[in-house]
Amino acid sequence: MKKPSTPRLPRRTTAEYRWTKEKMIAFLRALATTGKVRAAARSVEMSAQSAYNLRARMLRDHGPAFDRLWTEALAIALSRQVEETLARMRADRAAKAAARAQMRTATSSQAPRPPREAERNGGRGAPSLPFLQDPRTP
């Protein structure tokens, strides 16, 4: 018995497997956005390995210009990630400060708390633990 044939996808042309100038530009833009080589390569329908091969080939054949652009794109992505992280940290800190302030106003409106043992004894410690007190203190 013969298997039912599945429709085949059309083959890509040879040009679709190659890095074009447009693909390189789109790759570098995606790299600056994501900071991830695999994701940037996939966005232009290429593999991460082919991107690394392109980088090495461009460095070998055309000098460090493409390599510098690659590095700059990663630096842009990293600085964006740092800025986003700092913004989240600042927002968290502000939210915690607001919660603490709200907690303080809620507790200040309640009945005053009784003084702690050290406050009752002038800050010298608990009277039930005489060995913790300074013997020179009256």
Structure overview:
This protein has 138 residues and is mainly α. The protein has a domain at 16-104. The protein is 61% helix and 0% strand. The protein contains 5 helices and no strands. Helix 1 (21-34) crosses helix 2. The longest helix has 44 residues, at 65-108. The protein is elongated and about 90 Å long. The protein starts with 20 loop residues before the first helix and ends in an 18-residue tail after the last helix. The model has no long low-confidence stretch (mean pLDDT 83).
List its traits.
single chain, 138 residues, 5 helices, mainly alpha
Average per-residue pLDDT, rounded, comes to: 83
Report how far the terminal alpha carbons are from each other: 106 Å
Q: What is the number of E strands?
A: 0
Q: What can be said about the biggest beta sheet?
A: none
**Topology order in helix (H) and strand (E) letters:** HHHHH
Structural class: mainly alpha
Q: Which range does the strand content fall in?
A: under 5%
Low-confidence stretches at least 5 residues in length (pLDDT < 50)?
none
Number of helices: 5
Topology:
Layout (H helix, E strand, L loop, with lengths): L20 H14 L2 H7 L4 H15 L2 H44 L8 H4 L18
In short:
Helix content is 61%, strand content 0%.
